[in-house]
Amino acid sequence: MAEPEKYDFAMASGEFLDVFGEQTKKWDCIVTCFFIDTAHNVLEYMQTFNKILKVGGLWVNIGPLHWHYSEQPSEGQVQLSLEEIEHLVPKFGFEFRKKEMK
């Protein structure tokens, strides 16, 4: 009987940039579910996604943009519209393969 394939999966608590920011070209896929709007600076997140994904890697994002710190002025946050994010995503090395809004 053949050995089962081994998969590497990570889910960690803590600040995303602190936990994953030092990694380079480690992951085949990143799935962000109701996540990017928790960033103080979503541009840093996108830059890190590109850095930690292997060449040809895939970033899948699911969820709205509610910007969790919008009602806390003391917490600085870069709050971009969906249109602004869509414009910036290719500048971080990504392309849209599918976009679905419900």
Structural features, described:
There is one protein chain. With 102 residues, the protein is an alpha+beta fold. Helices cover 23% and strands 17% of the residues. It has three helices and two strands. A two-stranded parallel ribbon has the order 1-2. Strand 1 (27-33), helix 2 and strand 2 form a beta-alpha-beta unit. The chain is globular and about 60 Å long. The mean pLDDT is 91.
Q: How is the secondary structure organized here?
A:
Layout: H1 16-20, E1 27-33, H2 42-52, E2 53-62, H3 82-88
Parallel strand pairs: 1-2
Low-confidence stretches: none
Task: Please provide the ordered H/E string of secondary-structure elements.
Answer: HEHEH
Helix content: 10-25%
Mean pLDDT: 91
Give a short account of the largest sheet: 2 strands, parallel
Kindly state the number of beta strands.
Answer: 2
How are the strands of the biggest sheet laid out side by side? 1-2
By DSSP (H or I, 4+ residues per run), the number of helices equals 3
Query: How much strand content do the residues show?
Result: 15-25%
Summing up helix and strand content along with how strands pair, one would put the structural category as alpha+beta
Shape estimate:
globular
- Determine Rg (CA atoms, Å): 15 Å
List keywords for this structure.
102 residues, alpha+beta, two-stranded parallel sheet
What's a quick, concise take on this entry?
With 102 residues, the chain is of the alpha+beta class.
